[in-house]
Amino acid sequence: MDKNFYDMIFKRKSFHRYGEPDGKKITPEELDDIRTMWYKFTPLFEGIGTKIKIVPGNQTSCNRGEEYCILIYSEKKPGYLQNIGYIGEQLDLYLTAKGIGPLWFGVGRTKERRYEGLDYVIMMAIRKIDDDSKFRTPGDLSSFNRVQVEKFWEGPVMKGITENVRLTPTACNIQPWKVVNKGDGTLDVYRYRRPGKHGIIPPFRLAYFGSIDIGIFMLFLDICLDHEGIGFERTLTPDDGNFRQLNLNAVYKLKNS
After folding, report:
1. The dihedral formed by the CA atoms of 205, 239, 193 and 147, expressed in degrees to the nearest 10
2. Residue 92's closest CA among 222, 218, 216?
């Protein structure tokens, strides 16, 4: 895992509106690098085929002032949505480090529902950011609109972990996670259907986007544990997309904690 990812947790920002064009453009070389890096990122589940296709933003329904949209495709195997969240968030942090502003755009639509035999899952909008100050300032957590610790973390809090994983972004801003710290070196990670929290997402789509979000969350958790020097063994449960309130996705057995 890229050691630079940890610092990007505090810098990254979802650019819901990019504003007027500022003259800076993503270069063809940068686009090629994005295509190359996608296949170097660490998957959550091995053996699930994924691909990306980068298209001009006006070929999608995004319309947020982006230059391009990265269309993300996958085989539909158990755990594929969690897997896309986990890999896609590495892309998000990589783009941030390169001065490219990302946006998970869960409600985006494209006519290209299939690509090289794989199914469309979600898109990410991108645009070159001309001024680094438009990202978040590391150390300033006041601009993060996230669920409070007590609403997603049960049991003893972990210094350097609990407050930082709270910053996890989501595909559709539903923050559907819950962690139970049993106090014995075990963390249970759930997809949690938070009562009344679904924004513009129809209830029947909550599990779909929530499964992607849990993959994003586990990437943040892994990065923070690694940064704190806490090793772990992780047992994953592919999310079957049911509508239960609590869905166990992973059990972490911590070492050196």
Report:
1. -100
2. 216
Distance CA 102, CA 14 (A): 6
Query: What are the distances in angstroms from CA 8 to CA 11, 53, 77?
Result: 5, 24, 30
Q: What pLDDT does residue 115 have? A: 95
C-alpha to C-alpha distance for 176 and 193, rounded to whole angstroms = 6
Q: Which residue has the higher pLDDT, 128 or 15?
A: 128
Task: Map residue 105 onto helix, strand or coil.
Answer: strand
Q: By percentage, how much of the chain surpasses pLDDT 70?
A: 93
Instruction: Please name which of 117, 126, 49, 130 lies closest in space to residue 83, comparing C-alpha atoms.
Output: 49
Q: Which helix (H) or strand (E) holds 213?
A: helix 206-227
Distance from first CA to last CA of the chain, Å, rounded? 20
Taking the model in full, what pTM does it have?
A: 0.94
Radius of gyration for the alpha carbons in the chain, expressed in angstroms and rounded: 17
pLDDT, position 145? 63
H-state helical runs in the chain: 5-11, 28-38, 80-97, 149-152, 162-165, 206-227
The stretches of 53-103 forming alpha helices (DSSP H) are 80-97
Query: Of all residues in the chain, what percent are helix, strand and coil, respectively (each to 5)?
Result: 30, 25, 45
> What's the pLDDT band for 249 if we cut at 50, 70, 90?
very high
Q: Which residue has the higher pLDDT, 217 or 197?
A: 217
How far is 242 from 56, CA to CA, in rounded Å? 34
Cβ–Cβ under 8 Å, residues 152 and 211:
no
Tell me the two tokens of residue 148.
Answer: 């409070």
Q: Residue 65 to residues 34, 91, 166: CA-CA distances in angstroms?
A: 20, 20, 28
At 130 the pLDDT is 84
Contacts of 138 (CB under 8 A, 6+ apart): 7, 10, 11
